[in-house]
Design a protein that fits this description.
The chain is mainly alpha-helical. Helix content is 71%, strand content 8%. β1 and β2 form a beta hairpin.
Length: 95
């Protein structure tokens, strides 16, 4: 085993290798940090989309109840049949 007892100055090539390695570590850490921030932003967006979905589902259920009530009212008044939404003409079911 070689034992160096005096201070040694690294060669410019050796220093360049260490500097390049250090730069690569720094670049990697920056990219990891950016990835983490991107992940946080995506999680926030995901949570926001989930909340919007919940609201829309509740609204959809409320609309279905309104539709059921309207259909019951119209059926009670006109009987069973079908409505042409374009013309507004109701055609009763033949019995």
């Amino acid at each position: 085993m070689n034992e160096i007892k005096e201070s040694v100055k690294f060669t410019p090539e050796e220093m360049s290798e260490f500097q390049e390695l250090s730069r690569k570590y720094q670049d990697n850490l920056i990219r990891l940090g950016q990835l983490y921030i991107n992940r946080l932003e995506l999680e926030d967006k995901h949570n926001s989309l989930n909340e919007e979905e919940k609201k829309l589902k509740l609204e959809y259920a409320a609309l279905q109840k309104l539709e059921d009530g309207l259909l019951a009212k119209v059926t009670a008044k006109y009987g069973e049949g079908s409505l042409d939404p374009a013309s507004g003409v109701f055609t009763p079911v033949s019995k």
